[in-house]
């Protein structure tokens, strides 16, 4: 991994070259990522893949005209060519009054260390041994597990730097490790596939191999004997593995880039009741060691806690500098997205939500991309479990769930506290009062 000093030197070198070639402002991003992954299946090693990626990019401004270029080569000659290309593009670009760097006053040379980097001192041979042990454990638990789709173990470290001509420069080191186990179960002529996984910044925070194997087996065999449902309207409970997708659609709908293009079903939604009262949705970018933490955004603006929804009402939009200027607003320090998006629970765990639902559909897998960001129409293939009297009765498959996100958001009956630890969105399972379930 390149050192912070090396990345900082490269960034300052590029900014200097840009000024020499006539840029009035410039911003540079550099990345250095390294790590490896292993895949094993049925006791054999399928792949061992090492990667080490370097990239550098510049956005150069000549007044209000912008040009961008990137490279994977950091030699002096390559950097000169990259800067020259960006400058040439800027010269022929149209001026944009909303363009430019983020306001200088929003930047600071001091930013918090969020404890994001914990390299895993594991060799490929040790990773293979762990993956094989996990698979062997999974195959031994239940005789209905007849095959493996493989176990993957990966470990990566990332180094990201950003600097601009407003005198901001920052470098963040981070890590991410994961193990996944995918299995195939058979009973009679029926076969089902499922998986489980664990992801963390620190290897010590991963699930144990035994726990992961047991969970993967449980998820896979629970799908055996799946049935179809009759077409009907019923309550739908999105498991915590899926619920983050609902709120990703919401964040996309209140993001400045979609709003100024008028490509959102939540235009002019500030102050409007989009969720039931009591719902609170917010960012927590400075959580130590969390998957979605960042001290500054993609423009060097220091991140901060933002409340998007308070008591069910939209409080502000998700903005970077450009979209904020287009809308006559101020950036929310969200260039590049939201950070540790958090949805406060209104209920207990999954069992509590099943009791609240009483009768309906627990969705554990979604298929397809049937979400229309302009209209809010929602239609996805699904599988999961039918629930009666608050208890899971049998697995279901080959169904479609449909609704409109505006109605779905307003019809949220409860949000659980069973947060998925593998996601940067901190949200539990979500119970909808009613959706259309299309079956036979």
Structure explained in plain terms:
With 440 residues, the chain is an alpha+beta fold. It has a domain of 215 residues. Helix content is 24%, strand content 36%. A 6-stranded antiparallel sheet has the order 3-2-1-4-5-6. Strands 7-12-13-14-16 form a 5-stranded mixed β-barrel. Helix 3 crosses helix 4. The radius of gyration is 24 Å and the shape is globular.
What does this entry show, briefly?
With 440 residues, this protein is α+β, with helices and mostly antiparallel strands. It has helices at residues 4-20, 76-92, 124-141, 209-221, 240-253, 256-260, 321-327, 350-357, 405-410, and strands at residues 25-41, 44-62, 65-71, 145-164, 169-187, 190-200, 232-238, 281-282, 307-310, 313-314, 342-343, 360-367, 377-388, 391-404, 412-415, 430-438.
Give the secondary structure arrangement, pairings included:
Layout: H1 4-20, E1 25-41, E2 44-62, E3 65-71, H2 76-92, H3 124-141, E4 145-164, E5 169-187, E6 190-200, H4 209-221, E7 232-238, H5 240-253, H6 256-260, E8 281-282, E9 307-310, E10 313-314, H7 321-327, E11 342-343, H8 350-357, E12 360-367, E13 377-388, E14 391-404, H9 405-410, E15 412-415, E16 430-438
Parallel strand pairs: 7-12
Antiparallel strand pairs: 1-2, 1-4, 2-3, 4-5, 5-6, 7-16, 8-9, 8-11, 9-10, 12-13, 13-14, 14-16, 15-16
